[in-house]
User: Which sequence fits this backbone?
C-alpha cells in the first residue's frame, strides 16, 4: 500500500466521522430544539441553515468524501482485495448510498420544498410538524449511521492493510 492511500484512508476515517458528527447533532438535539419553537421560528431557522450549509467547509467534506469514497472503492477492488479490500469497498459504498444518496433523494428535496414555503401559512406549519420534522430527521439519522458505519468499516480495513511504514522507514536510517 502506498503512503498516499494510507494517508487518504486515515483522512477518510476522520472526515466520515466529522460529517457524521454534524448529522448526529441535527438528529440528536437541533431538530428537537427547532420543533420547540412553535413552527414559524423552526421553519425560519431551518431555511437559514439550509442556505448556510453551502459554505465551503462542510460542503467540501461532504462532496469531497463522495469522491474519496469512489477512489477508495476502486482501489479496494482493483488493488487491495481480501478482508481489507472488502471492508474498504463497503465503507465507500455505505457512504455513497447511505449518506450521499440519501441526501440527494430525501433530504435535499425536503429542504427545497421548505425553502419555497411562506412562513405565515398554515400549510407550512402543517408540513413542518407533520412531514418535515419526522421524515427529515429519520433520513438524517440514516445519514448519521451511514457515516459512522463507513468510518468504522474503514478503520477495520486499515487494521487489515499492510502499512507502508513497515516496509521502508521515512526518516534517515541509523
Assistant:
Amino acid at each position: 500500500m502506498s503512503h498516499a492511500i494510507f494517508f487518504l484512508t486515515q483522512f477518510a476515517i476522520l472526515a466520515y466521522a466529522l460529517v457524521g458528527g454534524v448529522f448526529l447533532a441535527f438528529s440528536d438535539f437541533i431538530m428537537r430544539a427547532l420543533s420547540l419553537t412553535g413552527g414559524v421560528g423552526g421553519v425560519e431557522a431551518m431555511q437559514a441553515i439550509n442556505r448556510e450549509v453551502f459554505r465551503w467547509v462542510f460542503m467540501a467534506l461532504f462532496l469531497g468524501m463522495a469522491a474519496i469514497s469512489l477512489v477508495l472503492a476502486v482501489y479496494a477492488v482493483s488493488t487491495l482485495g481480501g478482508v481489507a479490500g472488502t471492508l474498504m469497498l463497503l465503507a465507500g459504498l455505505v457512504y455513497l448510498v447511505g449518506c450521499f444518496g440519501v441526501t440527494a433523494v430525501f433530504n435535499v428535496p425536503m429542504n427545497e420544498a421548505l425553502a419555497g414555503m411562506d412562513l405565515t401559512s398554515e400549510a407550512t406549519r402543517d408540513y413542518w410538524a407533520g412531514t418535515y420534522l419526522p421524515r427529515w430527521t429519520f433520513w438524517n439519522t440514516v445519514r448519521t449511521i451511514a457515516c459512522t458505519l463507513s468510518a468504522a468499516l474503514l478503520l477495520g480495513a486499515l487494521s487489515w492493510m499492510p502499512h507502508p511504514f513497515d516496509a521502508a522507514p521515512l526518516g534517515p536510517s541509523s
